[in-house]
Automatic annotation (TrEMBL):
Keyword Cell membrane recorded: yes
Record family assignment: Belongs to the RLP family.
InterPro entries: Leu-rich_rpt, Leu-rich_rpt_typical-subtyp, LRR_dom_sf, LRRC69/RLP
Protein name listed in UniProt: Leucine-rich repeat-containing N-terminal plant-type domain-containing protein
Record membrane topology: Single-pass type I membrane protein
Location within or outside the cell: Cell membrane
Signal peptide: 1-27
Top-level taxonomic group: Eukaryota
Database matches in Gene3D superfamilies: Ribonuclease Inhibitor
Record-linked Pfam families: LRR_1 (PF00560), LRR_6 (PF13516), LRR_8 (PF13855)
Major subcellular site: membrane
Amino acid sequence: MTTMLESLMLFHFLSLILLCCISPSSPFSVNIDYSSYVACHPNQSQALTEFMNEFDSSHCDLSKPYNGVWCDKSTSAVTMLQLKACLIGTLKPSSSLFRLHHLRHLYLSQNNFISSTLPSEFGSLSRLEFLSLFNNGFVGQVPSSFNNLSLLSFLDLNENHFSGTLNSNSSLFKLHHLRFLDLGSNSFTSSLPYEFGNLKRLEYLSLASNDFSGQVPPTISNLTSLSELQLNHNQLTGSFPLVQNLTMLSLLNLGDNHFSGTIPSSLFTMPFLSYLDLSGNDLTGSIEVHHSPTPSRLEHMYLGNNHFEGKIIEPISKLIHLTHLDLSFLNTSYPVDLNLFSPLKSLLHLDLSGNSISPASLSSKSDIPKSLEILRLSGCGINEFPTFLKTFQKLEFIEFSNNRIKGKVPEWLWNLPRLTTFSISNNLFNGFEGPTDVMVNSSMKNIFLEQNCFEGAIPVLPVSIRMLSAKFNKFTGSIPRSICNCRSLTHLKLPYNNLTGPIPQCLSNLSVVTLRKNNLEGIIPDVFYIGSPLRSLDVGHNRLTGKLPRSLQNCSSLEFLSVDHNMIEDTFPFWLKALPNLQVLTLSSNKFYGSISPPDQDSSLYMVHEEINYGVLYYFNIEAIDLQYKGLSMEQKKVLTSYATIDFSGNRITGQIPESIGLLKALIALNLSNNAFTGHIPLSLANLSNLESLDLSSNHLSGTIPNGLGSLSFLEYINVSHNQLKGEIPQGTQITGQAKSSFEGNAGLCGLPLQETCFGTNAPPTQPPKQEDEEDEEEVLNWKAVIIGYGPGVLLGLAIAQLIASYKPEWLVKIIGPNKRRNC
Ligand SMILES: *[C@@H]1O[C@H](CO)[C@@H](O)[C@H](O)[C@H]1NC(C)=O
Ligand SMILES: *[C@@H]1O[C@H](CO)[C@@H](O)[C@H](O)[C@H]1NC(C)=O
Ligand SMILES: *[C@@H]1O[C@H](CO)[C@@H](O)[C@H](O)[C@H]1NC(C)=O
Ligand SMILES: *[C@@H]1O[C@H](CO)[C@@H](O)[C@H](O)[C@H]1NC(C)=O
Ligand SMILES: *[C@@H]1O[C@H](CO)[C@@H](O)[C@H](O)[C@H]1NC(C)=O
Ligand SMILES: *[C@@H]1O[C@H](CO)[C@@H](O)[C@H](O)[C@H]1NC(C)=O
Ligand SMILES: *[C@@H]1O[C@H](CO)[C@@H](O)[C@H](O)[C@H]1NC(C)=O
Ligand SMILES: *[C@@H]1O[C@H](CO)[C@@H](O)[C@H](O)[C@H]1NC(C)=O
Ligand SMILES: *[C@@H]1O[C@H](CO)[C@@H](O)[C@H](O)[C@H]1NC(C)=O
Ligand SMILES: *[C@@H]1O[C@H](CO)[C@@H](O)[C@H](O)[C@H]1NC(C)=O
Ligand SMILES: *[C@@H]1O[C@H](CO)[C@@H](O)[C@H](O)[C@H]1NC(C)=O
Ligand SMILES: *[C@@H]1O[C@H](CO)[C@@H](O)[C@H](O)[C@H]1NC(C)=O
């Protein structure tokens, strides 16, 4: 009895708990009588304890209001269980969870169910009405046994890795009681079956951020209770979905698909619709807003990146409740007259980027609502600073990048009381009106001046500033000492200017410092204290001398350190190994000297040199912060920053490829070609599950190609030609689809795509033996993602490292503008 009580206490089941996100009063919760708790039956609390013990549940803080367990008064059985963000482990089919047959409400979100599939045993929880498995890392398909959960009214599978197709037989379509269904942010691929129309009680449906394709079935019009429909970020095609009769809709998000044709005018008479996102489609035609007894309630409307042809602003100006309006990249051929927005008295955010704006409407006589807080006019062909903004006291954010505005930044700008972000990147500005301290008292926090024609000294910055980005200008003189008075400054980016003088002493208080390609002199100040927030320091291509400051060891947040192309004279900085987060280290073209193997190691791999010009290391310094500010999603940010390639090609590196290469999990491309590597291809390469390109050609590698490479599903390019490899080429589709030339010039490879068959040969499917002097080599790459570059062609044992944060150039140019100096 004591143990039972103890386990009951463990779950705090007696504490009166209201739930944060799904409170018992939420429309989607289960009707459980929370006021009368009873002790759970021993067999139930035992099952619960066993369930908890299947996982590392040490992080389950049961005093948190969203965690808890509830038992039913009459049966003493567990009817409700909530455990958020604390379980780590695999959810097994044998889990004791599936003994809790009386569960009606199960909330297990944000746990780490490592690569678990959904056990079909969920089907045994046939009393479930509420099931939230949001953000858990589940993989695989939704099991067919889900059709047993016929009472389910709430199902949240958002943010997992579910895949596969939904066909007309899918168990989900048997769940006729569903009112809430969220399959968003998974990897479902398929068209949308007509059977979606079976889920007549749905009030909320999200299929966003998957790979659904094809047309939206007409049966969607049967979901007449729908209040929110999110189909954004898929590959859906066809004409506008039949949503006109979904009169309860308040939110419709079809953004980032391939819908074409025109927008039905009935959208603007839907009585409850307040949020409409159609951006990023191929919609054409004009927009009609008819007079209606139920005037539109639209507040948020996002129509950007479509192919509208007609004059669409005039009708939009009838939607008088609009607060957020995105009409960027409308693809219209006539200039937009800003005065058409004057009826929108509630407008807060307006984005007209990518459209030409009628010059007259930028004058001081413009009649635009003064309520505006955010105005984006990027790429609008503007020649002169819009003077009408002078009286806009509520402005917080101005974006005028990618225009052709000349002259000086007006003095009145710094007096706008709420302005915190100001971007004029990629224009032709050459200076600032007013005295050098004109901006010192302004409220400005983020200033983007990149790619203009600014000359002369950098002005005294606003005391409140957090971020200054001014690359590709012609600022001269030294970095003003006054920046050390800016206690909120975290990002200082002044690369590609003509600054001289020393690096200021206060930079250890910043988190991102980019001073690349100037003429700075002196030493890098040795001022880094314990707890310094520094994440990125780039002082490459200057005239810095002295040693690398040893106090950099204190910067435990440092991820990016680039001092290439200076005159730094120092031994190889093995001491940087102490920095746990360092990912990119660029030392090329300096005067580093000495051994490049760790002092306490006797490594045969590297030789000692008196003086080494550490080589070229290319990278594109695209910090997350640039992208955040441009309003890109987290997802794109992640993709951008995790793209990594190592290129050590074209050198004379000898020895074996260290097995520890398999630790560089983020690698997208590895190029070790044209060296003198010996030994076997490491088995651990098969652990680089993101690898898309692998070039090991022209080395002296022997043994077989590890079978695991056949299962790297992203591998698009592999080249192992001109080695001494033998045996069977692994037969995965990614490999056999390669060109023959990728395998030629080896001692004895056989199998597709080569013509030599393995039949009859004695090709043993052997795997390479464990490498002998592994210990020594581990040391090199145990710097985890620290990738070290050495100069090309400088004797044995040196390599070029290219670490490229790669990206899709087309859209980056659209977002950030061309990465070069303007012709002033
Ligand atoms: C658990 O206890 C309940 C209530 O007494 C009982 O109905 C049920 O059969 C028991 N289940 C098991 C597996 O012992
Ligand atoms: C479906 O639920 C019933 C009870 O309603 C149960 O007997 C049956 O085993 C469940 N089926 C599966 C596949 O779990
Ligand atoms: C659905 O199930 C029926 C009967 O089980 C089967 O004949 C049909 O091929 C299935 N359809 C799909 C799309 O799987
Ligand atoms: C569901 O939609 C289809 C296609 O729009 C229609 O033919 C069918 O009658 C609808 N069913 C019901 C029950 O409304
Ligand atoms: C919408 O409702 C009207 C009237 O009820 C009906 O005539 C029309 O067919 C419906 N449209 C769709 C697409 O379901
Ligand atoms: C509109 O888009 C089409 C297709 O992308 C393009 O060819 C055309 O030049 C664009 N027109 C304008 C005015 O932007
Ligand atoms: C900034 O504010 C300070 C203190 O209020 C004042 O002394 C100074 O003159 C102001 N500077 C400018 C340029 O307005
Ligand atoms: C930088 O300034 C020096 C003189 O201080 C000048 O010779 C040089 O051309 C300038 N470089 C650039 C890129 O403007
Ligand atoms: C760094 O910031 C701390 C705390 O704000 C401050 O005390 C210190 O003076 C600053 N150091 C420099 C060099 O600005
Ligand atoms: C690290 O910072 C502390 C002050 O926080 C300083 O005393 C120490 O010298 C620094 N370490 C190095 C190696 O410079
Ligand atoms: C690897 O680098 C060499 C140059 O050394 C280049 O020719 C080759 O194309 C690169 N391989 C890949 C896959 O990019
Ligand atoms: C791949 O990684 C796993 C886990 O990270 C590890 O246990 C395994 O030894 C690695 N395989 C190879 C061949 O390195």
